[in-house]
Design brief:
Length: about 325
Amino acid sequence: MQHDGHGATPIRLALVGIGKIAQDQHIPALQSDKSFELVAAVSRSGGIENLPCFTDIGDLLESGLDVDAVSLATPPQGRHAIAGAALDAGLHVMLEKPPAATVSEVADLAARARAAGVTLFTTWHSREAASVDAARDWLAGKTLRSARIDWREDIRVWHPGQEWILQPGGLGVFDPGINALSIVTAILADPLLLQSARLEFPANRQAPIAAQLSLRSGEAAAEAAFDFLQTGPQSWDIVLETDSGRLVLSDGGQRLAIDGAEISAGTDEEYPRLYRRFASLVRASASDVDLAPLQLVADAFLLGERVEVPPFSF
Ligand code: NAP
């Protein structure tokens, strides 16, 4: 029998891919959310203590274990096959960002979720940062004059040894950069259109280690600088000049200042909020599939000038 999270019956969920983000965020968020019962792991490396562990999604689906949903925290390469198998088996699916390795894969998953009558949720965790809603509310009705995004972090600190991130489909510096794009696509009134891009590929790698993007949103120009080699202070900042003042969203969306005065700040509740939203989507028999951030990254790969930079090793 399918449990859908109505009433007191929790949604029985299996977590797929027990790496950094699963350990840091997904497991704690699930363990403190009564809408879910974490019933299994799908993992090549060991899984979750005291829970059944399956080496791949096929083994889980054939096991006979009662499960209503899966949440995928694997790298984007390979997600489509895992998510497709789960949807076709009638399970609700939640996807880490970026939702898949290509835009077409996400469209296919959305169609298969509709056909199976189950929920597909393509998450964008940075949209759940503490001050993003306040930024969108403040911007409503104002005219954007220009936008500047600086997303600079140290790959060796935040993604130690993650070879997949610099392989084809790993997105390279767009793995963090897509978080900035997920915020601006959620708060700006007009769609963002890519004008040009410069992508810096290490000579020994297949994904960019830095990128600069020029975009437009309505009449306003927007510039984005993504850097994976930032040592010292890290930057996850968005600055929007409007006809009514200057908005600065910093710390990845946690803090909001208007004309230099902080008006909103909060603690990190991104993953608890994502799981609450997933539960409400399951209860409403709805899906939430937003491709806009991944589309912009695809556009950067389509239009971007490629520049070779020195080899990179972790
Ligand atoms: P990670 O530490 O490398 O973990 C990924 C896990 O996925 C691995 O431990 C492995 O778990 C499984 N996996 C399955 N196929 C794999 C393959 N071909 N190569 C490598 N691992 C594979 O990566 P992560 O940092 O958790 O990132 C996973 C996803 O979460 C990415 O899409 C990333 O953008 C997103 N994310 C990461 C962060 C962060 O701070 N790191 C923050 C937000 C979102 P098993 O051994 O259990 O199979």
